[in-house]
Amino acid sequence: MVKRKFNDLPFPYHHELELEIATLTNLGVGLGRVSLPGSQPSAISSQPTQHASGWVVMVPFTLPGEKVRVRIYRNHKNYSEADLLAVISPSPHRITPACGLFGRCGGCQYQHLTYAEQLKWKRQQVEELLKYMAGVEVAVAPVIGSPRELGYRSKITPHFQAWSKDRAMGEPAAIGFLKQGSRFEIVDVPQCPIATPEINAKLPEIRAKTQARLAAGEYKRDATLLLRHAQEGVITDYDAVIHEQVGALKLHFLARDFFQNNPFILPAFTGYVREQAAASGAKFLVDAYCGSGLFALSCAPAFERVTGIELSATSVKFATENAAANGITNATFRAGDAAQIFAGLEFAPTDTAVVIDPPRKGCDELFLGQLFAYGPRAVVYVSCDPATQMRDLKGFLAAGYRLTAVQPFDLFPQTRHLECVITLRRA
């Protein structure tokens, strides 16, 4: 494999320089600017490009207002990336990270920042995404924070490699998460402060068993472990049926299925979605990515009838069982064809609200086309990636919907990730 030649413009490899960090991007990376001869003006927000005040340099683990010393390791067409060497003038909001691996492990971006400031910056990033991606300037509500800043994550999936340099030299294999800035190298993580205490108590046992199986040659390829904290304790079997409780709502589903990984904020999170959907005055609700029924069943008390639609027949089975287990009789679930999601619905669109919670990539054009053709009274759009949500928002605005509320929730403290709920009404 031929190594790509280093682009030495505008900086040579490992060039060191000092700069002040101006802002944080929505990837959780510090952004600073340095003067270059011949810089041309270009209007930006916090996206990497050239600007009247200088060339953009992106530096992880830095904070706005800090003066830092950095070392360039990559030049792009319109910005450079650098490693942090030293913080010369620290931010008053800088704190000592809870994890000794912070800065090496790629799982967290904000452990060096006070939690109040994390919430402040996440709100600002949503505002900027709205403005620069959707062309909308609207008030964003303050981010609703997690009841737990650490010890909140109820599921982790450590990775390991069947062969590694460590094992070849007789050392234990690294079992953990990707190294910051790497797509392949794994950092060994014996404990994870953002995981629940129950998961951390179970982790040494699982790591020891995995090391023994590696030594015995049982793994022929790289693999991922599962530790999921539920009512039964910590589950490690992907195919196990587990039980969760959100407020008074009891749910069960497969351990491998998607479910929000911060149970401590879920009552407030699902409650807000229910309030926004019901405030539209709709009599009926459609949950278009219903999974095992979290939003559909949480919202059911506020509507005459609810229908959950899901591509997975297994999830539909669990959702139906969950409705029965909770005594909810006005909610039904069906497996939907991707090409005909809303086909056969008996609800009049003018009396219907739709909740959508798509994957990180957002909604595809086929789904949005069907949704706009159906034309519900209101849509409550839940997203784990506000950037793809704002991309989709442009389609809603073009289809005649107006944005009435933007409410971020911090399900993932210490990381750049954020859940955002936007409410849309048909004009």
Question: How is this fold's topology laid out?
Answer:
Layout: E1 16-24, E2 29-34, E3 50-51, E4 54-60, E5 67-75, E6 80-89, H1 115-133, E7 155-156, E8 159-160, H2 165-168, E9 176-178, E10 186-188, H3 197-215, E11 223-224, E12 227-230, E13 233-235, E14 241-246, E15 249-254, H4 266-278, E16 284-287, H5 294-299, E17 305-310, H6 313-325, E18 331-335, E19 352-356, H7 365-374, E20 378-383, H8 386-398, E21 401-409, E22 419-426
Parallel strand pairs: 4-6, 16-17, 16-19, 17-18, 19-20
Antiparallel strand pairs: 1-2, 1-5, 2-4, 3-4, 5-6, 7-12, 8-11, 9-10, 12-13, 14-15, 20-22, 21-22
Write up this protein:
- It is built from 8 helices and 22 strands.
- The chain has a 7-stranded mixed β-sheet, with helices on both faces. It has a 5-stranded mixed β-barrel with strand order 1-2-4-6-5.
- β16, α5 and β17 form a beta-alpha-beta unit.
- The chain has 3 domains: 79 residues, OB fold (Dihydrolipoamide Acetyltransferase, E2P) (Beta Barrel); 214 residues, Vaccinia Virus protein VP39 (Rossmann fold, 3-Layer(aba) Sandwich), CATH 3.40.50; 86 residues, no CATH class.
- With 427 residues, it is an alpha+beta fold.
- The longest helix is centred in the N-terminal third of the chain and has 19 residues.
In short:
The protein has 427 residues and is α+β, with helices and mostly antiparallel strands.
CATH architecture of the largest domain: 3-Layer(aba) Sandwich
Number of helices: 8
The number of strands is 22
> Any idea of the CATH topology of the largest domain?
Rossmann fold
- What share of residues are in beta strands? 25-35%
